[in-house]
Design goal:
single chain, about 230 residues, alpha/beta, Rossmann fold, 2 domains, 6-stranded parallel β-sheet, two-stranded antiparallel sheet, about 15% strand
Length: about 230
Amino acid sequence: MTPTYVFWDIDGTLIRTGGAGLRAWEQAIAEVLGRRDGLAGIETSGVSDAEIAVAACRAAGADEAGTAAPLLEALERLLPGELRASEGSVLPNVRENLEALSARDDVVNMLLTGNIAATGRFKLESFDLWRFFDAGAAFSVEGADRAGIAAHARALAGQHAGGAVPGEQMVVIGDTPHDVACGKAIGARTVAVATGRVYSLADLQRAEPWRAFAALPDPAGLCATLGLD
């Protein structure tokens, strides 16, 4: 029987970084583009790093084809220092759920995130969460939006399962309407949690996820929600 593939977002869903990611972006934009107002007018919550880089280039009037990649490289270099200096935390019930689900034979934890690979891995390693995701991860890559990342996640699940995975056997958990949309793009069940810094539970419910919670349920509650015995 095909296991249930649970795809987790990172920021606002698994962890909070204390603003480290935003500060690293501000520094990268100042360094590469010379813009001191950095992210002003640029949406960041639930948006992939690749999309943020393109938006920053456009805001600065820079050639995105030649500048987006250096921006992402600067982000990768600057994020670790910002994260070490920040008071980040693992969100409630996250570690407990990852431990409980990882112990099951009928569930596979994977990542579906707008982070680039290096920064996403560093964030999770910093909080001892990376070890739960050895089955696979779909990260932001240059030129990919969240729907493209979701398609890659679906392909990873198929590779792991040895064949196409039905939509009802995939679950996307995230804290923004963008996460809900990318889960729907691959036919997955979507679980929205209002633990991020921008979107309320009402905001998330308007995106019409399969289920929505103010915070991630405890392991018994999440397993019951997902229909796991």
